[in-house]
């Protein structure tokens, strides 16, 4: 039989509301090479070259891919880096 300890009630701890995560979505376009997209993905999300190629192929074949899920600021940061070379990107709340 496992013993469980009751959680002490504390009134002085404010409750922090956590909103739904945000997503950075990279959309397909015919204006960049795979190499350009892979390099920018590596810069924006810190992925390996192999991961960048996998994501680029997914975007090419399906039209888009979620490349970052997290807080709004981080998703916007990633989108800004991707957009530096004119990639089509959007940031949405999930």
Helix/strand-derived class? alpha+beta
What is the terminal separation in angstroms? 41 Å
Number of domains: 1
Number of strands: 3
Q: Helix proportion of residues, in percent?
A: 40-55%
Question: What is the succession of H and E elements?
Answer: EHHEHE
Biggest beta sheet summary? 3 strands, antiparallel
Per the principal axes of the C-alpha atoms, what is the gross shape?
elongated
Rg (CA only): 19 Å
Order of adjacent strands in the largest pleated sheet: 2-1-3
- Beta-strand proportion: 15-25%
Give unreliable regions as ranges: 1-8
| Helical segment count | 3
Mean pLDDT: 88
Plain-language structure description:
The chain has 94 residues and is α+β, with helices and mostly antiparallel strands. The protein has one domain. The chain has helices at 34-45, 49-62, 72-83; strands spanning 22-27, 64-70, 89-93. It has a 3-stranded antiparallel beta sheet. Helix 1 (34-45) runs antiparallel to helix 3 (72-83). The radius of gyration is 19 Å and the shape is elongated. The model is unreliable at 1-8 (pLDDT under 50).
């Amino acid at each position: 039989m496992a013993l469980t300890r009751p959680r002490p009630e504390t009134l002085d701890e404010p409750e922090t509301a956590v909103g739904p995560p945000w997503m950075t979505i990279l959309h397909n376009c015919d204006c960049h090479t795979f190499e350009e997209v892979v390099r920018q993905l590596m810069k924006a999300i810190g992925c390996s070259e192999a991961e960048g190629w996998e994501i680029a192929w997914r975007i090419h074949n399906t039209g888009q891919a979620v490349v970052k899920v997290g807080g709004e600021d981080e998703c916007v940061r990633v989108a800004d880096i991707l957009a530096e070379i004119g990639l089509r990107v959007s940031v949405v709340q999930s």
